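User: Quick one: structure for sequence A, then sequence B.

Assistant: Sequence A:
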Amino acid sequence: MTKPTTLESLISASGASFRELTEHERQASLDAFVARGLPDDIWVFGYGSLVWRPEFDFLEQRLARVNGYHRSLCLWSRINRGTPEQPGLVFGLDVGGSCRGMAYRIASHQVTDILQELWKREMPSAAYIPKWLNCRTGQGTIRALVFTMDRGKDAYVRGLDKDQLLAIVQRAHGIYGPCAEYVLETAQALRQAGIHDRKLDALIEQLSTQAQQADAGHEPAAAHPGKKRGAAALPHSAR
């Protein structure tokens, strides 16, 4: 299959089979995962919006590292941070490298209810593969639930050049707000946690430069990355 050469053709090709899971399909996915067995308390590893907006109760949180995967803006967002016609991008955990994030320990008596909410949040279109992965922390290695990118889905995107990535993040806007705001919130939360992501920092610098140019009257910008907006408590993650 010939790889699309323009951003427009890439968006068109990726959206051909986009659909959300039905409630029955999502529940079946969760049931299949739980059927493999759960520990009493469980750990959940966050690398994107879960770092700054977990939206569930937890007993403990730790900085953690997952090996074999890296944080990447590799998931199309056609609802929460974009539209079907002009999708945004949100973070997925793609194969290769390593990723630092935040791990949360959930009490056994809350696991069932919180997993229900997590599946609504993270698995609206089955773009992720939920896995148990080892996470290294300062207090030792833990086994955590991690939502990894399914490379077989049309929602997965790779091979974007710098200009294409920048254009998508700048222009997209969904029901939860601008894609640029989502990227900025994640970058700020990672820095506050002492996590440094060079690729993300470089993207923020590019967004900041273009926002400054826009302020000087050169061109419009979707969101000003130099100014953090108040993040409302939302029921689902940015997809």
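Sequence B:
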Amino acid sequence: MRGGLDVITPRRPECSVPFVEVSITELDLACLPETGAVFDQLLALHPEQIVIDLADCRHIDAAAIGLLLDVHRRMIRAGGVLSVRNPNPRIIRILQTARLDHILPVRTDASPAPAVPTAPPTVVAAGAGTASAGDAPLPDAVPRATAYGRATVTVRT
């Protein structure tokens, strides 16, 4: 107790998934509600690290940049890290123009890979095993990869 006030340090919620990889093929205003719902469900798992693979993504817009900043802010508050991997040269220029490359780690295949567990990812075909945006994952549920619209979510534990 200090000066009559208790100093409480926030504790990081128990991590139920250490690493989540999200492979996105389109990241724009049209798919933002679906993609945002995916990130909401992933953040409920309290991952230590989320990597967004943009290797197959051809375009992002201002709304997508806003979503990335929101997810980054929420990850930082939870003690986690959000990074972007393999954006094409056009997307790199967009990230640089928005100065997002100063906020988020941006990696390419030439960059050292983040330390992650080596368990192979499981991918569920589009339409199979999908959950509605309102479904909250159960704390004891085993996470899995699912295709949501144009984003493929791969969870590695």
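The longest strand covers residues 19-24. The helical segments are 32-43, 62-77, 89-97.

User: Thanks, that's what I needed.
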